[in-house]
Amino acid sequence: MSAASDAAAAAGRYRPPSADRPRTITVLGATGSIGRNTLALVAERPELYRVEALTAQRNAAALAALARTHRARLAVVADPAAYRELAEALAGSGVEAAAGEAALLEAAARPAEWVMAGIVGMAGLAPTLAALERGAVVAIANKEPLVSAGPLVLETARRSGAVLLPVDSEHNAIFQALADNPIAAVERLVLTASGGPFRTWSLERMAAATPEQAVAHPNWSMGAKISVDSATMMNKGLEIIEAQRLFGVADETIEVVVHPQSIVHSLVAFTDGSFLAQLGAPDMRIPIAHALGWPGRLATGAPRLDLVAVGRLDFEPPDPARFPALELARRALRRGGAAPTILNAANEVAVAAFLARRIGFLDIVRTVESVLESLPDAPVGSLEAVTAFDREARRVAHALVEGGPPAGRRKER
Amino acid sequence: MSAASDAAAAAGRYRPPSADRPRTITVLGATGSIGRNTLALVAERPELYRVEALTAQRNAAALAALARTHRARLAVVADPAAYRELAEALAGSGVEAAAGEAALLEAAARPAEWVMAGIVGMAGLAPTLAALERGAVVAIANKEPLVSAGPLVLETARRSGAVLLPVDSEHNAIFQALADNPIAAVERLVLTASGGPFRTWSLERMAAATPEQAVAHPNWSMGAKISVDSATMMNKGLEIIEAQRLFGVADETIEVVVHPQSIVHSLVAFTDGSFLAQLGAPDMRIPIAHALGWPGRLATGAPRLDLVAVGRLDFEPPDPARFPALELARRALRRGGAAPTILNAANEVAVAAFLARRIGFLDIVRTVESVLESLPDAPVGSLEAVTAFDREARRVAHALVEGGPPAGRRKER
Of B402, B239, B224, B400, nearest to B325 (Cα)? Predict the structure, then answer.
């Protein structure tokens, strides 16, 4: 059973938020980009939401300010060292303050109908699972739960009846385009990719690319890690895995098309020849608004697409020679088990090494490939197994990048 | 209440056709382009359909062949003079033969769950109403019922619980993009227009355009009348009216964007900033397949869109100075009552006069405008009222075009 077909079936069980019956929400990662955009939309329609819990890694001052503004019941910093600052900032506010890993899990486990899983990296996995375990509607904004722990996340959601709403713009587009169509009516999923800053660069030029060049994304405003993933197109490789998890289709059904303007966020091709696509300005508030309003639509002030002003949309095939991350991610998906966990972990280490100028741009994907080849397979059916494989892949990747690029592979192919 | 919201609510009452429970269908206008494409799709999956009745204007030989192939129960020619030929061609086949207007209405009234209303022109109105009166699912492929008799058609469908499925590619696209979203969540409907063969022509060049130049449509294979409507963009004007009828939105909510490649068939903009669009190869089998499979999807061999092969999609604003038909249609829609009936009837006469080289290309819309200005308003709540206004508008238009272009307006503005 796929998360998407679950959600279609579940839509009938849920009502959109209304002033008569506000939706109780929790935002995990409230001070990050996704969290702030979520709360900005909530602030546009405060009568529709009641905030249960907000969490942050360590930015106590920002978290306290958001918790006061949104009258949250609970605010949690993951880092215990930030507890005192949070407690002091919330004194007299009526907002409960807490800190540490256990408090973070408790925040996720509190009875909010809707949870934004907006914590970056593997740190988001355990709280996301805690929200899924109690059957919440979980808006998934980070890739790690589905890429590194896909089978575990899906099995947890299936057991509890939780609903997964994808917030990544591509998967949100597919989710919207699917609407109430059964997965059996899907012929192909077409993930669009901007192509990143090196879309038109030669392999020779890419070999000499600097971190500054790699983080200059043409359309989206994103963090350094994700920008580099966009430059290697590993981002799209991870999204192939994410799409396979979410929608339960065969790997070869998922196609990638380069679309430099980032206006068509993805498409679904149906068995009758119709394609449905979601389009919009490249702004994360749009997919977040969809998740906040689901199964209805939330009227927001998010920027509107002006097709005539955009004027032109282009589509081209991705180049497998310059962007080998796409095929590497497909290989990890086909191998299954721990392979996607290893892919994701090794990529994080390799990107950090590139940003620290310890390896070249083309070495990122080579490092990931080497780690993937050097580690064995195994199922990852528990949080402990996922964490162990993640740690081991990081260890091997660190050893590789600290010893320089993988031996014997410095030359261009 | 709008037809689209009716259909969304009705989807739960219907099941897609299946081999266990084949869908009984009737095709009005079986020998035309829409009818033939419908039956070609039915022939791909004969186990899903049982053909009740097929009708044609006068092509008895073609109708008899289709009726035999599809084992129809009844075949009707509207023209009584063709009855003998039909009866002879069907002798021994077990298919009942009939002819004349009453037989045509009886064919539409027979208990088929699904009816394709594919009869061109005003002749299709009465049989379409007959199918709607008994609460059928009616796939509407001709513009006349909704443009000329919109309120009557909608009221008939509302009373009986009939479902209208639009087959025009633009309205079918909007219907698909709406999916299960409520009309209240719609911010805008964006109808795409190819711009026709004169998209880039100057007004001076358009004034001298010949019928041969006007019927050379860049993307779709269509009849001469519709091709000329595409060249004047009256086609899109009629579609604005049709969309207002089908989806119950305000006139100013409906936008027209020129999209020369005819790949994005139309879009819906929602209140949360998301746009949903239907795309596909420009082939009528795709929207027909959607209607045949609704509320499911029919797997067909219709041509597939290859976005990478298309490569580029353009969008530009329509030019109101060169294409005044758009604003004229909006005026008729706002005026309401008989104005859309008059617009449609006068346009048919003016296009025929242009094709017969009696008036110039730019005189088409001028003629329609003159007829619209010279006739009074009135409600059109009955078939008789619609027919009377249609006839009167044709009479006035004939008088105008036979006297040459409207007096005093021969010069370019």
Answer: B239
Alpha-carbon distance of B325 to B232, in angstroms, equals 7
Q: How is residue B170 written in tokens?
A: 């633009």
ipTM: 0.94
Binding-face residues of B in 190-209 toward A, CB within 8 A: 190
CATH of domain A336-403: 1.10.1740.10
Domain boundaries, chain A: 3-167, 172-281+305-310, 336-403
Beta strand A96-99 with A74-77 is parallel
pLDDT digits (tens, 9 = 90+) for A154-193: 999 999 999 999 999 999 999 999 998 999 999 999 999 9
Give ∠ CA B44-A179-A261 in degrees, rounded to 5.
Answer: 100
The minimum CA-CA distance between B175 and chain A, rounded to whole Å, is 11
Q: Reduce the DSSP state of residue A404 to 3 states and report it.
A: coil
* B180/A182 touch (CB, cutoff 8 Å), yes or no: no
One of 3.40.50.720, 3.30.930.10, 3.60.120.10, 1.10.1740.10 is the CATH number of B3-167, namely 3.40.50.720
Q: Residue B43 is encoded by which pair of tokens?
A: 């022939």
Separate counts of helices (H) and strands (E) for chain A: 19, 12
Query: Please, what is the Cα angle at A289 between A284 and A295, to 5 degrees?
Result: 140
Q: pTM above 0.90?
A: yes
Q: Where does B234-370 show beta strands of DSSP type E? A: 254-258, 264-270, 275-279, 312-314
